[in-house]
Amino acid sequence: MYLAWAHPTRRETTHTLEQLVQTGESLLAQTPSEMHAKGTSHADQLHAIVQRNDFLQSVGADTTLSWTIEGCHRARISGRALITAIAVLRFHKDKTTWPQSLEELASAGYIREIPIDPYSGKPLVYKPTADSFTLYSCGQDFDDDGGTPGQWGRPPRGGDQVFWPVEKH
Q: What's the distance, Cα to Cα, between the start and end of the chain in Å?
């Protein structure tokens, strides 16, 4: 009886779902670092919308949308990192030296723009070494761990998302 009385109507549930989707679309434009700077996250914002709707909570509507947004940010930066790594390798092949910075890579025309890490709000971290280079994102813990590999998709326990060198399995 309580559930029937307390549970939102179909109309209210539909309205909440529409609000969730609209908010998700606007949150997609905000990077994780921007949300972190505000003291919140995509997940927090979406959960606040469904917190009074047991049905939407039970089906994980907010969690699913949050994972989708996170996946989109990870896919974008992974693609940009791939393009950057290929550009660094091409630069090295052409000039027999590693670029000293991403700025040098861009000014030489190997990349159009310097890729911004959505987890730091700064450029991806690039460090040339004697025989190669390191390229990484600060990752979901928003902390630069010096290129120490972490794993995306796991709770943030430290570590960075290292794109190069490629980890051997």
A: 55
Regarding whether 95 and 50 lie in a shared domain, the answer is: no
pTM, to two decimals: 0.84
Please say which residue of 39, 70, 101 terminates a domain: 70
Total tally of structural domains belonging to the chain: 2
pLDDT digits (tens, 9 = 90+) for 21-67: 999 999 999 999 999 999 999 999 999 999 888 888 888 889 999 99
Rounded Cα distance between 40 and 66, Å, is 13
What's the Cα-to-Cα distance from 63 to each of 32, 50, 57, 60, rounded to whole Å? Answer: 15, 10, 8, 5
- Whole domain around residue 12: which residue ranges? 2-70
Domain assignment present for 18: yes
For residue 12, the tally of other CB atoms under 10 A from its CB is 13
Cis status of the peptide bond prior to 118, with omega within 30 of 0? no
User: What six digits make up the tokens of 9?
Assistant: 């109507």
